Amino acid sequence: MPVADEIDRHSAAPMYDQLRQLIIDGIARDGLQPGDPLPGEHRLCERYGISRTVVRQALAQLEHEGLVERVKGKGTFVSRPRTSESLVHTLVGLFDDVARRGGHVHSDVLRHEREEADDEVAAALDVPAGSPVVVLERLRHVDGEPWSLSTTWMPEAVGAVTLGVDLSEASLYRLLDEHGIHATHGVRSAEATVATHEQALHLGVSAGSALLRLRSISRDADDRPIEYFIAHHRGDRSRFEFQLRQEQSEASLLHIDGAGGASRAGTVAI
To answer: What gap in Å lies between CA 87 and CA 15, rounded to an integer?
Structure first.
């Protein structure tokens, strides 16, 4: 990764922060992709005439920001993208969230059929237990990598429009929109969990690995539930950061973008 810039030893900016920015600029300039290797600590020390402590500070900050991944015994690599925080605090779906970032989502449809609602699904969809609902279970891949395992339940009147439709390369929300079914509000939560043996097989991780579990109920303008889903995202592809203020009882959720910037996304009670 050739770098034309140098560390300015007369600058008020700490050397580790200057190096951090030089690495970010080099990734963008050289068009490096997720998984591409970065120069090692020794090479960075020689290139810039700085100590290993400075290099390690810069890499630690980049790793904290989710821009690089350090693998013991192998080196430092450009980080793979992670689950966006917008999946937690908005009604956006994975398909549209990834498409907005220039990625591609493919879904292996594991199940798409009618079934009877159990007590949990019935309560979420405001229907009697045993009522017919449409269930859609998908293994989602982002840019060819297993990403999440999701199960969506819809009232029969909603889900009926999806039956027979190939959803392997399509957005469920867009399909519903085309039939005049629009989600306007809802409740979505995120919690940590671990992978079961079956989930691990689907997601390409070890049983017991960290997962992020999303639960969501979406409603239309008349407050009628249109879907309830539970999605398990790989923990190594999920990262959220909160800005805390002592004088407030809320925390602002920040999205760390690919350039290392932070944008305020919303608030969550703590």
So the answer is: 36
